[in-house]
Design a protein that fits this description.
The longest helix is centred in the middle third of the chain and has 37 residues. Strands 1, 2, 3, 4, 5, 6 and 7 form a 7-stranded mixed beta sheet that branches. This protein has 387 residues and is of the alpha+beta class. It is 54% helix and 15% strand. It binds flavin-adenine dinucleotide (FAD). Flavin-adenine dinucleotide (FAD) binds next to strand 1, strand 3, helix 11 and helix 12.
Length: 387
């Protein structure tokens, strides 16, 4: 099945492809080397209006996840970290759209869409990443709201976010468990400490930090969802929404690795011949291209289903396929690209090892690829969907 782009999406593709080549590509190696947050790239994406793409029209967007995927793919082709700026901006919007009160939607959705505000999502703790239900951070109900205590790790974007969507186990005033909730914790909230960023091998330009909550008070209005215990479902549906976009980042990465291989193959010679004339090289390249195209099609298919309004298990299945298949292809293609480069691939003088390092990250984040396979199998077998 082939998924084509409409004329608006083709225009977005042309625009982002040009900007990516002219303005983003020259910054990519430096962002990776310094591991400094690329504020200039954020400003560029904001100026182009790209943050708005998947948001509903009423919040200034185009209501198209497929358009968002196309933009992420084109940026990811030259700079994983700049593509990540879009992905992380969209990490929280599904939960606010799905479970936010009218006030929460009004306050945050237009601001996220325009790039006036930045968000971060915090579920992972040292003892539980895949198993979201195993989180230990607590939110104890008080007369005025909730008091949150605990610690998180790997919260990407937290150092510059205007708010962090925090998952916590809710306790009533007597201490009885009431299930998981998501809370919008605003920057500067008393009791919130953001720790030092991780020193990462990939995804280096968008810092991931630990968080500490010490008797942090939030009002009831900070809770997403109508009641205590509604956060787990919201979190799962939020992760589903962004999975095609995460897959698009790997499609872009794989395409970018192929682009760099074509440049390298143009000149490299061995045994008196161009290495591109060896059948071993040609077949490897053909396999890389073939698998990248299939990954693109499954990502577009998943995003198109979201745009058609398909939800629930039917969407969860294809969204997990898109994330899992595309990121496995991204890793495979980046590994083969390293092989084509030979020793040059190991040297930081060439861009390809950046693709290899970034590719590994996508197989782990937003639900590992084992968890994606569990979701697909659960849908097939009819058991409860896990993250
Ligand atoms: C660069 C980066 C950015 C991140 N950003 C964020 C962020 O912004 N917010 C956030 O909350 N988290 C973030 N994370 C954390 C990420 O979501 C978790 O690392 C991920 O969910 C996996 O959790 P874990 O590392 O604890 O692995 P674990 O859950 O401990 O898993 C370890 C291994 O066991 C496997 N495994 C676990 N359970 C099963 C199962 N049921 N079946 C089969 N295999 C299983 C896993 O697939 C994995 O291979 C980030 C991580 C990275 C690397």
């Amino acid at each position: 099945m082939s998924y084509s782009l409409n004329s608006d999406q083709k225009q977005i593709q042309d625009l982002v492809r040009r900007v990516a080549r002219e303005r983003v590509a020259p910054r990519a190696a430096d962002i990776d080397r310094t591991a400094e947050y690329p504020q200039d790239m954020f400003d560029l994406l904001k100026e182009l209006g790209l943050f708005s793409l998947p948001f509903p029209v009423e919040y200034g967007g185009t209501a198209s996840l497929l358009s968002g995927c196309v933009a992420v793919e084109e940026l990811g082709r030259v700079c994983y970290n700049t593509a990540y700026l879009l992905v992380v901006q969209w990490a929280t919007f599904g939960a606010i759209l799905g479970g936010g009160s009218p006030e929460q939607k009004k306050r945050w959705l237009s601001a996220l869409s325009s790039g006036e505000a930045r968000g971060a999502l915090s579920l992972t703790e040292s003892q539980s990443g895949s198993d979201v239900s195993g989180i230990k951070t607590t939110a104890r109900r008080t007369a005025k709201g909730y008091t949150i205590n605990g610690a998180k790790i790997w919260c990407t974007n937290s150092h510059i976010a205007d708010f962090i969507l925090v998952g916590a186990k809710t306790l009533d005033e007597s201490g009885a468990a009431k299930g998981i909730n998501l809370f919008i914790v605003e920057r500067g909230t008393k009791g919130l400490t953001i720790g030092e960023p991780e020193d990462k091998m990939g995804a280096r330009g968008v810092p991931s930090c630990p968080l500490f909550f010490d008797e942090m008070h939030v009002p009831v209005e900070a809770r997403l969802g109508p009641d205590d215990g509604t956060g787990f479902k919201l979190a799962m549906s939020m992760l589903n929404t962004t999975r095609p976009v995460v897959g698009a980042r790997s499609v872009g990465l794989a395409q970018g690795a192929i682009d760099h291989c074509l440049d390298f193959l143009a000149d490299r010679r061995a045994f008196g011949r161009h290495i591109k004339d060896f059948q071993g090289m040609r077949w490897m390249l053909a396999d890389m291209d073939m698998r990248t195209e299939v990954a693109r099609q499954i990502v577009y298919a998943a995003a198109s289903r979201a745009d058609e309004g398909i939800k629930g298990k039917e969407f969860a299945r294809i969204a997990s396929m898109a994330k899992c298949f595309a990121s496995d292809v991204g890793m495979e293609v980046a590994t083969q690209a390293m092989q084509i480069f030979g020793a040059a691939g190991i040297s930081s003088d060439y861009p390809i090892n950046r693709y290899f390092r970034d590719a590994k990250v996508v197989q782990i984040v937003e639900g590992t690829n084992q968890i994606q396979r569990n979701i697909i199998a659960d849908v097939l077998l009819g058991s409860a969907t896990q993250r």
